[in-house]
Known about the structure:
By secondary structure, the chain is an alpha+beta fold. It has one domain: Carboxypeptidase-like, regulatory domain (Immunoglobulin-like, Sandwich), CATH 2.60.40. The chain has one helix and seven strands. The protein has a four-stranded antiparallel sheet with strand order 4-3-5-6, with no helix packed on it. The termini are far apart.
Amino acid sequence: MVLDGELNNTPLTLASVSLEGTSLTSTSDENGYFYFENLESGSYTLVFSFVGYKSKKLEVQVTQNKQTKVATSLIASSISLNDLASLISSTAKKEDKASL
Length: 100
């Protein structure tokens, strides 16, 4: 389960969850739940990310044919005014080129 650490741990919808070192990814649903199926037993590193939030890694132990429950909270990342200005400038330039 992926929770919003800024909003009283409410479920975070559409957070990206991936298994580090693989191409496997999942997306949290409206209740914050995500799923990976048919994983072999072993240790995995989950990578959680969501736009505007700090990414987080979490090590989990999986046992084949057993459900492993994981819950974590993501915290909003701060953005500097310089970063925001660069983002706005970059977006404006792309829009200008698209209108040509």
